[in-house]
Specification:
This protein has 80 residues and is of the alpha+beta class. The chain is 22% helix and 30% strand. It has a single domain, classed as Thrombin, subunit H, CATH 2.40.10.
């Protein structure tokens, strides 16, 4: 049973990279992100037009990809 499980895992690992193919070039990461003073990044996401940083003090900072300027700041509040 262990040998069968190992065989299945090996087949998945071998086959999955061949199935998943990226059709478009990924959006490049910004070279430098300048956060406001006192901010520390917790998470990052991006699109073709903007990128966003979630800070450790529960804010979402949305930056313009072309200029690097801060476009919007969203304060995250608890739903309680």
């Amino acid at each position: 049973m262990i040998l069968g499980l190992l065989t299945i895992i090996v087949l998945i690992v071998i086959r999955v990279p061949n199935v998943v193919k990226v059709t478009e070039d990924p959006v490049p990461l910004p070279e430098v992100i300048t956060l406001p003073d006192g901010s520390a990044a917790a998470s990052f996401t991006q699109s073709a037009e903007w990128y966003a940083v979630v800070t450790k003090d529960d804010r979402i900072l949305i930056f313009n990809r072309k200029t690097g300027d801060l476009q919007q700041e969203i304060q995250i509040t608890s739903g309680d």
